[in-house]
Fold this sequence. Notes:
Layout: H1 44-60, E1 65-72, H2 80-95, E2 103-108, E3 113-119, H3 123-141, E4 148-155, H4 163-176, E5 180-182
Helix pairs in contact: 2-3
Amino acid sequence: xxxxxxxxxxxxxxxxxxxxxxxxxxxxxxxxxxxxxxxxxxxxxxxxxxxxxxxxxxxxxxxxxxxxxxxxxxxxxxxxxxxxxxxxxxxxxxxxxxxxxxxxxxxxxxxxxxxxxxxxxxxxxxxxxxxxxxxxxxxxxxxxxxxxxxxxxxxxxxxxxxxxxxxxxxxxxxxxxxxxxxxx
Length: 184
């Protein structure tokens, strides 16, 4: 019998899945995974709390935080297999481009959206990182005819912001093509 959450084969009589940790008889159980299996990046259930923590840290220590949202521009709805391929390609490009202290994650799977958290990074550094990520993603996706766009937010530590507001600001930036500042 496979696990209903992750599909991992289970021995007879199992109470918990050895792969994702859910209790098999609990219909509301959620897998304990923090890493997206397709991309190897943090999943959306983990990246949002990490963003909250980074925002709190930036505010507490009066340090800037760069947030980059990246998604394909010329696709809105994709077949699941095609979305997975694009997501995997984008993740590989981003993981190879970001610094060790940065945190990449999957925000949404279809259409693919990836989020990059850049601690201690001002607008100039965030713009430089966004350009590198955009170049890497577009270069990787060119063979399949897909291009990406980035939304860029620089959070200044003058006041406390919530993750949802920062993601919304990054989404606006992606649509307008202009970076946004929070906490002027």
